[in-house]
Amino acid sequence: MSDIGIVIVNYNTRDRLRDCLRSLDASRGVTCDVFVVDNDSPDGSAAMVRAGFPRVHLIASRLNGGYSYANNLALRAILVLAPAPPFTLLLNPDTVVPPDALAQMLAFFAAHPDAGIVGPKLVMADGTLDRACRRSFPSPELSIYHVLGLDDRFPKSERFARYEMTFCDEDKMIEVDSVVGAFMLLRTETLRQAGLLDEIYFMYGEDLDLALRIKKRGWKVYYNPAVRVLHYKREASRHSERAQYEFWRAGYIFYKKHYADKTAFPLRVLITLGLAWKGGMKLAREMMRPLPPSPNAAELR
What we know:
The protein is an alpha/beta fold. It folds into 2 domains: 4-138 and 167-234, Spore Coat Polysaccharide Biosynthesis Protein SpsA, Chain A (Alpha-Beta Complex), CATH 3.90.550; 241-299, no CATH class. Strands 1, 2, 3, 4, 5, 6, 7, 8 and 9 form a 9-stranded mixed β-sheet that branches. The protein is 39% helix and 18% strand.
């Protein structure tokens, strides 16, 4: 039995993926089963994995069903291993993991038996913090602040900046609502309790949704800045029209699933208008229809 089952979803990031896999090969003090789900990349990513990393489990997906869908292909494979690894890591291909990082994260779990999810301090290439690596859930109140840009305008405000927690010391270990799916280490047991990623999310939001379901089962989520991981975040792609639509669509889905029924009508109208304004006409039209059922609803808890 390995210590960690690692899931990496890749599309067209061959060179970054190679660096990521090399960093995992250099890990000390842990054993890992690595699964790479390649979404039919035209850049030769799958061939690179086959040739250079024969111990990696490659899943070549011909369907681009989204980030949750691709991760779940590997998560199902991990859960049926006999025995399954006690920990599961969701990892982006544009990360570089230091040799002792995984062992240090497992030591953190050993010292915190209430931890269901732990994330490290993610640092981007320019040395700044990836602010998504420690977050609060986007409640109706925080969603309004984010839509209005108040969190960016007042980054040290405990009221306005709670979503990305920019008022907190980035080098202090704290309990949070969620870490980011770029590096999300979980007890595998939590996946059996809370289910897999919800495939209604195409891109963004699925990590928040999973963290919420895991926290509802009594587990805690921690940000552990003693471990630092490099994250080459592709900011240009995140600001594309498609990415912006998916970001705000994910926010709408999360709100509808977890908050809409508990939100007063005037506030519900305000949030809906704000999301439609930020997400554009395509999202506005989608919001006029009932939220469709999750494609993998039977796997969610």
